[in-house]
Amino acid sequence: MIPAMDTPTPDPAGAFAALMDRHRSIRAYRPDPLPAGLVDTVLVQALQGGSSSGNLNLVSVVKTQDAERRRALWALHGEQDMILQAPLVLTFCADSHRTRSWLAQRGARLGFADLVSWHTAAFDAMILSQTAALAFESHGLGICYMGTTLFAMRGIAELLELPDNVLPVTSLVVGWPAEAPAQRDRLPATAWIHDERYLKPTPARIDADFAQREVRGRDRYLSFSPEMAARWQAHGITSLAQYYTSPLKYDPDLFAGFSADIEALLAERGWRRRPGE
């Protein structure tokens, strides 16, 4: 049916663009509770509305709302206070345990206990988490991803009593925002959108694409505390790039240890099955 001329035409594309424009990582929250039933509704809709490899749904989500258990997560996540402020933490897990149990009960050949399956399940978890994040934001809620999940996988798995073939991939803090930060800048399209084939950036292209990031990122990190500028100077840091791989941020030596821990944990928790095992 053609709508009447005076009937407003819905603009889903415009609404989605506005939602994207409103995205912020919120790190300060009001303690107000979430509407009853909203979280489960959003998660069910997000799973239905997102993609899943083979439609196996190799993902589980653990909701943490209890104050004492959120404090335990707070300790594991580097004592980020937003975990104590917000009423909810969601831990998105790669999960082939449920699928393997189903296979065993049906007399099927067991699988999904290898590195490919870990990647598949981890990507399913990330797709679900991002779809859920957009849905929560559409309700006016704030969210923040916690990259610390990767560094605390073992402790989180133990706290949440995750069985073999289930490991945390990422976490979302969810609640009502108590701040309205400016939207963070991203790299320009010229840095990451390629036509037909990958074009290796020239030194001049790198300079142009990172020009604003160098200034805005440096200013942001130096604004964190009066001591930050002195710490940069003490470590001989003269650029944002140097900061990112310094002991103050993403230290490659420290990350090598984290990487080894993750590889060991994958093997311990059943994600590195070898032929014949």
Tell me what you see in this structure.
There is one protein chain. This protein is of the alpha+beta class. The protein has 14 helices and 5 strands. The longest helix has 24 residues, at 115-138. The chain starts with 11 loop residues before the first helix and ends in a 9-residue tail after the last helix.
Q: Could you list some keywords that capture this structure?
A:
5-stranded antiparallel β-sheet, disordered N terminus, globular, alpha+beta, 48% helix, 14 helices, 277 residues
On the 0-100 scale, what is the average pLDDT?
92
Tally of contiguous helical segments? 14
Q: Note poorly predicted spans.
A: 1-5
Structural class: alpha+beta
**Helix coverage percent of residues?**
40-55%
What is the N-to-C order of secondary-structure elements (H for helix, E for strand)? HEHEHHEHHEHHEHHHHHH
| Tertiary shape | globular
Number of strands: 5
What kind of sheet is the major sheet? 5 strands, antiparallel
